[in-house]
Amino acid sequence: MNKDKALRDELVFQLTKGHAHMSFAYAVKDFPEEKMNMKFSNGDYTFWHLLEHIRRTQNDILEFIENPNYKEREWPKDYWPEKDQEATKTDWDKTISLFHEDQKKLQTLVEDGNNDLYIKIPHGTGQTIIREIMVIVDHNAYHIGEFTIMRQVLKTWKQ
After folding, report:
1. Are 37 and 46 in contact (CB under 8 A)?
2. Which of 23, 48, 66, 131 has the smallest C-beta neighbourhood within 10 Å, fewest atoms?
3. What pTM, to 2 d.p., does this model score?
4. DSSP-assigned letter for residue 84
């Protein structure tokens, strides 16, 4: 197998499924709607806040890769909803839908052999596409793990 294709396939697998972590799709499957605004003990964010943070961060990195006029966002304000903001079912569904849309765009970007994964992003400070994809994989895996532990602790998995 072509080494470049093998790498691209592995990056897509990590973005969408992962070997050592649960996928986003599985983590949110059958989530009880009435719990989306629930906070865990000693926590200051909800299930929806965490999913929205994952989505916003993934979207920011996608925009950085694709947009030569990218404007850096403000941390943490632009990466998290307001602490007191509650989601509606529409907000929840939109977060999940937009996450998957951006994930699909990232998958397409990685699969396109015309995109050099190793070349420095022209408007960056040394970042490459492969580095940014790995940051997304790492960030998503970390927070999806956190989300699933919250689900376990707050008993939101179907019995």
Report:
1. yes
2. 66
3. 0.96
4. T
